[in-house]
Amino acid sequence: MRSWALQVSIALVALGQYGCADRQNWSGEWVGRYELPKGHENDPVEASLAKVTLTIKPDGSFTLIEAGFDKTGRVLSSGKSATLVVERVMGRVPERMGSEAAGMGGERKLEMNEDGTLKFWRKGVEPVELRREAQR
């Protein structure tokens, strides 16, 4: 009887840790765009390059299309914040693509806003608001 009660207690503690924690649902397809300089809003090439599409899978991997380049990697999340660790750009390791491409790797930051949108940014660039277009 004691063994059974102990097992139930352990299971309840584990469920409390994982079931009730402040966990965000990051998975889905998120879309936004960088703000273009005045006078460039109607340029179709610049508008295309300004678009940001982020797909986060339930397994914690992601695909990011930013400035026309696809990037893949993994998501590290904690509460309402997350870090995208870019591991590949166009299917290749950025550090092996030369000095120009090495800057495409690195990390991107996410923060879950109260309205369900994401704040997306990387060092040295203005943040972009991403809206969920599809849930995974």
End-to-end distance: 42 Å
Order of helices and strands: HEHEEEEHEEE
Structural class: alpha+beta
Strand content: 35-45%
Q: Largest beta sheet: what is the strand line-up?
A: 1-2-3-4-5-6-7-8
Task: Give the strand tally.
Answer: 8
Low-pLDDT ranges: 4-22
Helix content: 10-25%
Computed Rg: 19 Å
What is the residue-mean pLDDT, rounded to a whole number?
82
Kindly describe this structure.
The chain is α+β, with helices and mostly antiparallel strands and 136 residues long. Helix content is 21%, strand content 40%. It contains three helices and eight strands. It has helices at residues 2-19, 44-50, 99-102, and strands at residues 28-33, 51-56, 61-66, 69-78, 81-89, 106-112, 118-121, 128-134. Strand 2 and strand 3 (61-66) form a beta hairpin. The longest helix is centred in the N-terminal third of the chain and has 18 residues, at 2-19. It starts with a helix and ends with a strand.
Topology readout:
Layout: H1 2-19, E1 28-33, H2 44-50, E2 51-56, E3 61-66, E4 69-78, E5 81-89, H3 99-102, E6 106-112, E7 118-121, E8 128-134
Antiparallel strand pairs: 1-2, 1-8, 2-3, 3-4, 4-5, 5-6, 6-7, 7-8
